[in-house]
Amino acid sequence: MRQLIQMFTVVVVIALALMYGASRLNSSQGFTGGSTLTIYNWGDYIDPELIAEFEKESGLKVIYQTFDSNEAMMTKIEQGGTTFDISIPSEYAISKMREENLLLPIDQSKLPNLKYINPRFLHLSFDPDNAYSIPYFWGTVGIIYNSDMLGGKKFTSWNDLWDPSLHNQILLVDGAREVIGMGLNSLHYSLNDTNEAHLQEAKNKLNKLTGNVKAIVGDEIKMLLANEEAAVGVVWSGDASEIMGENDKLDYVVPKEGSNLWFDNMVIPKTARNIEGAHAFINFMLDPKHAAQNAEYVGYSTPNEKALEYLPAEIAQDKRFYPDPELTEKLEVYKNLGKRMLSHYNELFLEFKMHRK
């Protein structure tokens, strides 16, 4: 027993020594909670020059990590294994994170640049008082297409995607809410529909689209469409803007039946260590010139009203990406469907993907 206790004591001492050594190493490199800011964001979703400028201005070292889905981001934050000071989830994820106490409240008194956000992007249903989130980007989901590859064909409706002439010509984003929502919208149902009969009807209709679907892909959808390896894509508006910048033969439309109006906001996860640094970063990104620079680099629509003055006119006045309120008021924001229904959407999407095989 004495030997067992001695062995246990040695193991504990070694573990503590290793933890202390790692802490000293991180400290010597500046990687402590107060001298670093850890940002968790979508891939290619910020101008790297802005990170460098923030580091220079604040004296903080930015550690930047990326995620590819709201669900993956929420799981990692919920597990708490990694500390994140800033994350940038979508609206329905913010609603869910609020419910599950995964967010810290934001002190708006530390954000003087919040005054530049267009009021129409504040006090939305997923965070009525913006107590937990601050607008970053917004946009729509729609159809991007290359008329030259399709004999001059144009798109106005989701149902245009089912045209037999589009065999093996469509790329879809790898997202359950987007694809199932597209099926629901094509039937004039809400993209937040939870009626089982409507969901099955949408899935059955999507099954009939499989002959036209070349692939269901992630970020590579931008390269594939720009390189004309497919003629049509269902994409987010910012991706469409970037693709069209690479190939001016492409155009983008929000279908007449309706679509998704989405918002990505900056939040402070509950495990944040550098809360002061997080507020400083949020306020930095709210600066109109920084917001304009970021919007021009990323391609998505900025909610920063003052930033529009610093954007080229061909961007700020493009109604495809800065549509009038009359259009956006007809679109739907994703609602938090709850774990059970969200899992069901994912199951239906998986069944659709399996049907293609």
TrEMBL record:
Subcellular location field: Periplasm
Entry's Gene Ontology cellular component terms: periplasmic space
Phylogenetic lineage: Bacteria, Bacillati, Bacillota, Bacilli, Bacillales
Transcription as UniProt keyword: no
Coiled-coil residue windows: none
An annotated Gene Ontology molecular function: polyamine binding
Official protein name in the record: Spermidine/putrescine ABC transporter substrate-binding protein
Pfam families reported in the protein's UniProt record: SBP_bac_8 (PF13416)
Keyword field: Periplasm, Signal, Transport
Gene3D superfamilies named among the record's database cross-references: Periplasmic binding protein-like II (3.40.190.10)
Keyword Transport: yes
InterPro entries for this protein: SBP, Sperm_putr-bd
GO biological process, one term: polyamine transport
